[in-house]
Structure formats: C-alpha cells, structure tokens
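Working notes for the structural subgroup meeting. M.R. asked for a predicted model of this chain before we commit to crystallization trials. I am recording the input and output together here so anyone reviewing the notebook later can reproduce the run.

Input as submitted:
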Amino acid sequence: MKLVKKLLGENEVEAVLQRLDRLTDDEARTTAAQTLEVVHGLVQNIRVVMGGEQMHYTCPLLTVDRLSL
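Returned structure, recorded in token form:
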C-alpha cells in the first residue's frame, strides 16, 4: 500500500477508496430496493389468490431481456 500511495499520491488513493465505498453502498441500496419490489409482488399475488381473484404480477427484474440464458 505504501508503494501505491507513493506512486499515485495519497490523495488519489483515498479518493479511489471513497468512490469504491459509495459504489458499494449504491449497489446495496439497489439490491434492497429490488428485493422489496419482488417481495411486494409476491405478497400481492398471495392476497389475490387468497381472495379468489385472478391477477398476475410481472416482475420487471425477471423479464426475458434481463435473464442470461
């Protein structure tokens, strides 16, 4: 790490590490939001099934263009 700081400069290394932390936080928030969306859709489907109605929830995260086959 000392060599990297010496070559790039300590400020640049700190800036890169801070950017990496922000990206990790953003990814965690995005994953949490997507998970909540899926759970919400499942709960809605359960309510519909228990009520005897017919309704299909389509999860935008599981569309064919997002799945890698």
